[in-house]
Amino acid sequence: MPSLARVNQPFTNEDTPLGTQPTLSSLMDAAGRGEKSAADLLFSALYAELHRMAKRELMRQGFPVSLGATTLLHQAYLELAAKDATSFPDHARFMGYAARVMRGLIIDHARSRQAQKRGGQFEITSIGAEAEDAPDARELSQISEALDELAKVEPALVELVDMRFFCGFTFAEIAAMKGISERTAQRQWEKARIFLHRSIRADLEI
Q1: Which of 102, 94, 106 is nearest to 178 (CA)?
Q2: Which residues face 123 on adjacent strands?
Q3: DSSP characters for 95-141?
Q4: Of the four listed, 92, 110, 170, 184, which is most buried by Cβ atoms within 10 Å?
């Protein structure tokens, strides 16, 4: 998994000659054009950075510590954009990619909590994690798999679920980032929920 020490520093890829390694900004551009290898590397780079920031907060605050996904994403954008202000993607575009990465990070931590059952682990909270009957790691994985299927036909709905359920953004925040009305964001959320209920189970807490 690539390390993201500096945004304007190249990312390591064994298949890419030295001197031509991509930056985070160029990876986002390439992923936006549909290049799968760039999308995969972008996911790994953002995952590594968000994980590093979460661990840093653990060291600062001691443990156990609970981190808000929304706060972590905003902090990541501010820090990364500051390092490459001239070419870094806009806030909405960054959040679209980072929200998908946050989904993976939250699921991995849910699995870790179930496997280890001990202190010293940081926890990333989202809107889904706040519910009393929030899905466990197995159900979160099922949701993720169903979202991957939905992404093949309705990628915009999947991005909205990642932002709303896994990251905890409000409909107003999502609407502003996606350039749609809050009403439209709510309709898309309901459409996605119907798909997930049909794909997994009717009483799924989402």
Answers
A1: 94
A2: 66
A3: HHHHHHHHHHHHHHHHHHHHHH-SSS--EEE-HHHHSTT---HHHHH
A4: 110
DSSP-derived 3-state class of residue 67: strand
Kindly give the pairing relationship between strand 123-125 and strand 66-68: parallel
- State both tokens at 164: 């709303």
Instruction: Write down the residue that tokens 């749609």 correspond to.
Output: 180
- A 10 A CB-CB count for 38 gives 19
Output the average pLDDT for the chain: 77
Break the chain down into helix, strand, coil percent, rounded to 5.
65, 5, 35
Q: Could you give the CA distance from residue 183 to residue 175 in angstroms, rounded to a whole number?
A: 8
What pLDDT, on the 0 to 100 scale, is given for residue 17? 38
90 DSSP assignment: P
- For residues 146 and 156, the answer to whether their CB atoms sit within 8 Å is no
Tens of pLDDT, residue by residue over 115-125, are 554 444 445 55
Eight-state DSSP code of residue 170: -
Question: Which residue, among 131, 152, 136, 132, has the nearest Cα to 195 in the 3D structure?
Answer: 152
Task: Give residue 120's pLDDT.
Answer: 42
Domains and CATH numbers, the chain: 1-125 (no CATH), 136-206 (1.10.10)
- State the burial class of residue 100 (Cβ atoms within 10 Å of its Cβ: 0-12, 13-18, 19+): buried
Residue 146, classed as helix, strand or coil, is helix
Answer whether 134's CB lies under 8 Å from 125's CB: no
